[in-house]
Design brief:
The structure holds two protein chains of two kinds. By secondary structure, chain A is an all-beta fold. Chain A is 0% helix and 57% strand. Chain A contains no helices and eleven strands. Chain A has strands spanning 3-7, 10-14, 19-26, 33-38, 44-50, 56-58, 64-68, 73-78, 87-95, 100-103, 107-112. In chain A, a hairpin with a 4-residue loop joins strand 9 (87-95) and strand 10 (100-103). Chain B is mainly β. In chain B, strands 2, 4, 5, 6, 9, 10 and 11 form a seven-stranded mixed beta sheet that branches. In chain B, strands 1-3-8-7 form a four-stranded antiparallel beta sheet, with no helix packed on it. In chain B, strand 4 and strand 5 (43-50) form a beta hairpin. Chain B starts with a strand and ends with a strand. The chains are: A mainly beta, B mainly beta.
């Protein structure tokens, strides 16, 4: 069975500081991994995804994530937080059987001025 | 940019009533999904739909739930007799290519269902 764990349901960062959101997965097959962001009163928007190839993936809004197979991790980072980064972030793994995403619990990011 | 739309944005209903949540997926997409998120909990898969039939459904998707693509553009989720525990945000999603493992699922803004 596949599962996703996001460490920390809430993260508070200062504007300009590093944003680090942790995601660990379990998967019996090579995973396809995704990060989605949800801004208030909006749907889930894809930030980035890892399928195959380069393990460092760059996404929108300056975010990137690195797939580390040995650590079963796919942590999301952004070097310098902006107020507009305040949102909830979801890590997800794709399960081919049934063609569905399995989500982590989400991490809500608060950016302090 | 094409997007998935959902209506209504908020639905309030009485326990035992039927509700229909509507979604318009991106027009050339082939695979459709419903997910839900109970307040404070994870986003959970409900059902996937392709070629006018259900591909897979979760244990949540019992006989009270049904999906339909009635007219080639809309994709609906019906809950026949709502329960209090059906209160959640319901998200529709679609993907266009092969539905394969690397395809991006595009999500709508959600419908918040409140069952009283």
């Amino acid at each position: 069975a596949q599962s996703v764990t996001q460490l920390g349901s809430h993260v508070s960062v200062s504007e300009g500081a590093l944003v680090l959101l942790r995601c660990n997965y379990s998967s019996s097959v090579p995973p396809y991994l995704f990060w989605y962001v949800q801004y208030p009163n909006q749907g889930l928007q894809l930030l980035l995804k890892y399928t195959t190839g380069a393990t460092l993936v760059k996404g929108i809004n300056g975010f990137e994530a690195e797939f580390k197979k040995s650590e079963t991790s796919f942590h999301l980072t952004k070097p310098s937080a902006h107020m507009s980064d305040a949102a909830e972030y979801f890590c997800a793994v794709f399960k081919a059987a049934g063609n569905k995403l399995t989500f982590g619990g989400g991490t809500r990011v608060l950016v302090k001025p | 940019e094409p997007e998935v739309t959902q209506t209504p944005s908020h639905q309030v209903t009485q326990m035992g009533q039927e509700v229909i949540l509507r979604c318009v997926p991106i027009s050339n997409h082939l695979y459709f999904y419903w997910y839900r998120q109970i307040l404070g909990q994870k986003v959970e898969f409900l059902v996937s739909f392709y070629n006018n039939e259900i591909s897979e459904k979760s244990e949540i998707f019992d006989d009270q739930f049904s999906v339909e693509r009635p007219d080639g553009s809309n994709f609906t989720l019906k809950i026949r007799s709502t329960k209090l525990e059906d209160s959640a945000m319901y998200f529709c999603a679609s993907t266009g290519q092969t539905g394969g493992r690397g395809d991006t699922q595009y999500f709508g803004p959600g419908t918040r269902l409140t069952v009283l």
